[in-house]
Specification:
Helix 4 crosses helix 5. The chain is built from 8 helices and 7 strands.
Length: 190
């Protein structure tokens, strides 16, 4: 089964109590979802600080048949932690060639060959970071390169777009009294 990586945005930064519940929740016992806990109380973090957004995100590497199912699984499981729910999802820019291959539908080996200049026009993007033995690239640069050589690479995978829209809508509807008939008429529920 494929492993999907994505970043799930939360409605708030985790409190120490929520982090403790997360750490003891069976749904997250496999380590496929991680978080960053910031200083407490959370209001001590300036909202414009680059770290503030990171504190409201979960980094996910989840096995599932599809990206949409992986996102749905974590979104469902995070509701097991009182007070938390997902409000959006996105891909990080830094990827390995394996991650990039999954996103673009090519094999990892074809990207390795392109990165070594063995075939294809133009220059493959240079790595942006190396950590231990792992090499990271910019996904946006790889996607641009692949578009330049004729690959049909969407700005974002359809599953990611669907999940992000659904999570944003669910967040907007959180606590709002909307009649089920209205939601059915809008096509939101069956």
């Amino acid at each position: 089964m494929p492993e999907w990586n994505f970043t799930l945005r939360l409605n708030q930064a985790l409190t120490p109590e929520q982090a403790d519940a997360f750490d003891h929740c069976d749904a997250f016992a496999d380590g496929s979802v991680s978080y960053v806990l910031g200083p407490q109380p959370p209001e001590r973090i300036p909202s414009l600080s680059p770290d503030a957004a990171e504190l409201r995100e979960l980094v996910c590497d989840v096995e599932a048949p599809t990206l949409l199912e992986a996102i749905a699984q974590v979104s469902r499981d995070i509701r097991l932690i009182p007070g938390l729910h997902a409000v959006g999802v996105h891909h990080d820019d830094m990827v390995t060639l394996g991650d990039a291959a999954q996103r673009c539908g090519r094999s990892r080996q074809s990207l390795v060959q392109l990165s070594r200049g063995q075939r294809g026009p133009g220059d493959f993007p240079e790595p942006v970071a190396r950590t231990g033995g792992t090499v990271f690239y910019s996904w946006w640069r790889i996607a641009g390169f692949l578009r330049d050589i004729g690959d049909d690479i969407p700005e974002a995978p359809r599953d990611l777009i669907i999940a992000d829209h659904a999570l944003r809508l669910a967040d907007e509807l959180e606590g709002v009294p909307v009649a089920p008939g209205t939601l059915r008429s809008l096509g939101v529920v069956a």
